[in-house]
Structure formats: structure tokens, C-alpha cells
Amino acid sequence: MVKKLVLIGLLLAFAISGCSSRGGVDDESAGASASRRGPGRAGNGQSDGMGGRGGQPAGLGDLDSPAGPLSKRVIYFAYDSDEVLPEYQPVLTAHAEYLSLHAEQTAVLEGHADERGSSEYNVALSERRANSVERSLRLQGAGEGQLQVVSYGEEKPAVSGHEESSWQQNRRVEIVYPGH
Amino acid sequence: MYFQVTPMISQFRFLLRLGLFALGLTGLARAELTVDITQGVEGAAPIAVVPFGQAGLAGENLAHIVATDLAGSGRFTPLAEAQMPERPVPPEGVNFPVWQSAGQEHVVIGRVVPGTGGAPHEAEFTLFDAIRGTSLLSERIPFKAADARHTAHRIADLIYQQLTGERGIFNTRIAYVTASGSGKSREYRLQIADADGEAAREVMSSPEPIMSPAWSPDGKRMAYVSFEDRTAAVFVQNLSTGERRKVSGTPGINGAPAWSPDGSTLALTLSKDGNPEIYTLDVASGSLRRITRDDAIDTEASWSPDGRSLVMTSDRGGKPQLYLVPAAGGEPQRLTYEGEYNARGVFSPDGRRLAMVHGGEGGYRIAWMDLGSRNLKVVSRGRLDESPAFAPNGHVIMYVRKDGGHEPLAMTSLDGQVQRTIPVRGGEVRGVAWSP
């Protein structure tokens, strides 16, 4: 029951954020989300300058621009949770926007878990995380055929340590664009 | 049954011998092998395995391998070589009174001689009852030098079976996956080794994860999960020919393969219909049957030995717990209530016990449940233990230790008192399976 309420809440949040970014000024919303991601990135002056290819919003940049909003491709999760935290919504919004503007572009959503517990159960947990990201991207405009989920569980850790500081870097979904 | 001494005396004698045994092993055994017995083992039987006469055979003395096997079972406490009152080699006789004085109830002597048939060598050994002064078992085993370790394991099996009435497991094999390197140089290897970790060989390797090896009941094939195509698929590989076949590559998860006892069917976890569910796949025909139907995670099926039921991990109650479900489909029945996390249930070969990963305050440990009384016993002491695998005789459980501070592969007796590490080369271990 609680789970369902949370889900409904998330769906509403996605719907609202999707509306505002599409209905408002795209440059601004993308620019704002880029600056929210940290002063270090915004300061190098590349994030806005690399955009504008093929008629897309200037703030989005292209997939290979190192400091553009699309350069951020890892979503981290709390312990035992598949909920996308609010701080990652702008990241997903940017990717959803890019995917909706480039219908030929595909992306793989790689789900990962930390190493605690049983490995096959962790595969299932990591699929839930990847499915959360997929739902969010699709609600914000990505097409069904553009996304593929692969659930690795604990098998491909980003960091090899055996304590919480490593585990929090391993509970993640990576958005992978083949060839980029 | 053999050693009806009081527990306290038994423990004292045992600890004394263990110390001597450890001293004796230092110079003889391979450095990476450890038998770590932290508590006295009630009823573990004293036995002396006298070094074999084997002048014509290079390498480790077969008696050392036999003694290490027996010690690792938790049922025997072999006498350290330095404490042996004599070292007879056949055809010499055994002076039973001196062994009785040394507290020994059984003595094994043996030698390696040139083979009389086609084989270059022959191992002959005799197991004596030192109290009665009688021979209990005497065998000759022809072998070639490359099979010396296997021959020693066979001898240990024969002795174990003679004295316990149960099947020995020393001449069995294990399969496990190792992972090493990082980034682009990451490598996963599926390996098979003897049950003591020796004689490892590679079944297959990949830069992408390999998971969940499962032996077919006849030991000839192995099912496993491979991400080599950048997506999960289940493969079945013939271990002698190397020939392999993708048996499941549906969208989403293809995981947790488990062979039915008759070897015809694989239980699998597939998420093609939206979320992870248990299916059974007829391997020959490819026909698929859905067993579970629930919004929760259902995964990690293991067959009961009679083939009628599956145990699985499900979080349909909110947290992962073990459930029993009819193999033909039906209503799952919850089995575990102790602790917030119970996963990867596997049946013992006699179907009376379930080993599992049990999450509690101390971390994730290996436990087993008696299916009659439903009592749970925790038998490992790590922080991140997983992947329990019963020995084919059901008396030992092998598991993976992930906390990085220990050798990654270990086995434990059912009472948890004998922990033995298994040497593994090739990086961290990701999962283990014991051959039939």
C-alpha cells in the first residue's frame, strides 16, 4: 500500500516536471539543472556552448560533450530502494528530452546492486532500479523501443570495497548510449 | 558411534591433537590450505595416517592429502606425523599397543608400487582397528602420476565411508566463478576444481559476468548465466566436449538455473513478463512453464530431491524470505520467519534441510533449517557470506566469503565448528556449486 502511494507520488512528480520542462523555456530549465549539479561543472563554460546541434535545445548539449547535462549518466540509490531521488530528476529529464528528440538513439539502462546478500536476488533488485529509471524516462518522452534494461546485480561493482562508502557507489543505474 | 568419550575429555584431547597436527602440517601441507577448527568437535575420531612409502612417486605424500581430507570433514582428528610412535610401511606390520598408548583407534598404512596392469603405479593401503588389532579395509588402486591427488582423495573416501557409513566427498568437484581486474581488463572465469580447491581448470571465461553455475545431476553438464552478449542468458555446456547451447535468452533477467533431479528440466528466473518469476524449462523440447505469478520478486529456485517442490526466494511479504512451491505450480507456502533476510535456499541431498543466506545483525551468514523442526542454525561467521552449496553427502556446506579479509571460499561442518578454507586462484569468488 505504502509502496503504491509512493509510486503514485512519483508519477505525479514526473508528470509535473515533464510538463514544466516541455511547456516552459527549454534553455532555462536545462541550464538550471546543469548549474544545480555543481559549481565545478558550470564554471568551465562548456555546458551551454556545446549545444544547439540539429535544432535541439541549446542547453542540452550533445552526448559527447564532457560537461553537458547528458554527461551525467549514473543514478545512485538508497539502500534497499528503487526510488529515484529528487536530486537525479533533472538528470533523467535531460536524458528523456534528448531521447525524445532523437528517436533513433537507443540507450541501455544497466541496473546494479551492492554486494550484500544473495547474488541472484541482487539481480532482481537491480532490475527494479533500472525499471524505475526506465519508467521515469518514458513518462518524460523516451520511446519504448529506445530503452533496454540489463540487470547485473552485484556482478559489476563500480568500486571494490566492502563497506558502505563503496556500497553507495555500487547501488546505481548507468545510462549507457552504445558508441558514446 | 565410535568414540563414546565424554564431551569434555573429547574436546581436551582434540585440542591437544589439533595443536600437534597444525605443527606437523606446517612443513608438509601447501601453504594456502588451512583447516581452522575454533572449537572442540565432539566425537571427532582420532586416526593416524602414516606416511606412505612412495619412493617411486614424486610430489606430496598421499598420506598427507588423506589426513587433510579427513580433518576437513570435521569427523576425524588425524595425528601429527611428529607424534607417531612408528612409521610402518607395508609389508611391515603395525605394533598396535604403541598406537593404543598414543590414543589412536585407527591406523592407516600404505605404499605406492609399480603397477601390475596397464597403470604405471598402484597405491595399496590398509585401515586397521588399533584397539582390536584387525584389518578393516585393504585396497589396491592403480593410477597414473597425474591422478595421484585423486587417488589420495579416493583413499580418503574409502576410509571415511568405512568408518562413518556415509559416502565420502573428497573425490568430488566444485565449480565456481572468479572475477579479477577492473574496467576493460575485467575478467570472469568459470572454473572446476577438486573439492579441496586443487587441480582447477577453466570451463569458460568472459569480460562480462558469469553467474550461478549448476551441475546437472549426472555431473556431465553445467548450466550457468552469462552476460557475454551484453544481456543475460542461460547456457548449458557439456563438460567433456565443451559444446554449449543457449537455452534461455528472453528479454530481461535469465537467471538462477537449477536442474531437476532427473536432469530433464531447469528451473529459471525470467522477467520477460514484467518482473522476476520462476519458470521451468524442458531442456530437450524448450517448452516453458510459468510457476509463480506475483508482483514481487520470485527467484533462486532449488528442487527438492523428490522433484515435487521448489524452494525459492520471494519478497512478496515485504522482505526476502524462503517459500516452498509445488514444482507443477500452486500456492507458495512461507518457510522462514526468523530474521529479515533469508535467500538462496538449497535443499540438502536427503531433502531434510535447507541451507540459505541468512541476514541478521552480524551481517549475511550461512544458516540451515531443519525442515522437520523448522529450527535455524547459523554456521558461518563472516559479514558477507553467500552461495551455500551442500556436499553430495549433505554433511558439509561450501560457501563464498566476500568481506575481503579472508580466503574467499570456505566449507563448514553442519555444526559450524569446523571451517576449512579452499584455495582459489584467479581473484574474488562469485558463486560456488558442488558436483553430484
List keywords for this structure.
heterodimer, A: 180 residues, 60s Ribosomal Protein L30, Chain: A, four-stranded mixed β-sheet, 6 helices, 12% strand, B: 436 residues, mainly beta, Rossmann fold, five-stranded antiparallel β-sheet, five-stranded mixed β-sheet, globular, disordered N terminus
Could you characterize what this model shows?
Chain A has 180 residues and is of the alpha+beta class. Chain A is 43% helix and 12% strand. Chain A has a 4-stranded mixed β-sheet with strand order 1-4-2-3. Chain A is globular and about 40 Å long. By secondary structure, chain B is mostly beta strands. Chain B has a domain at 7-164: TolB, N-terminal domain (Rossmann fold, 3-Layer(aba) Sandwich). Chain B is built from 4 helices and 30 strands. Chain B has helices spanning 7-26, 62-72, 96-101, 148-164, and strands spanning 34-37, 45-49, 76-78, 106-114, 121-129, 134-143, 173-180, 187-194, 201-206, 210-215, 221-226, 233-238, 244-248, 254-259, 265-270, 277-282, 288-290, 298-303, 309-314, 321-326, 333-334, 341-347, 353-360, 363-370, 376-378, 385-390, 396-401, 409-413, 418-422, 428-434. In chain B, helix 2 (62-72) crosses helix 4. The A-B interface holds A 108, 115-121, 123-125, 127-128, 148-153, 155-156, 160-162 and B 179, 182, 186, 188, 209, 211-212, 227, 230-232, 252-253, 255-256, 269, 271, 275-276, 297, 299-300, 313, 320, 341, 343-344, 357, 359, 364, 383-384, 386-387, 402-404, 430-431.
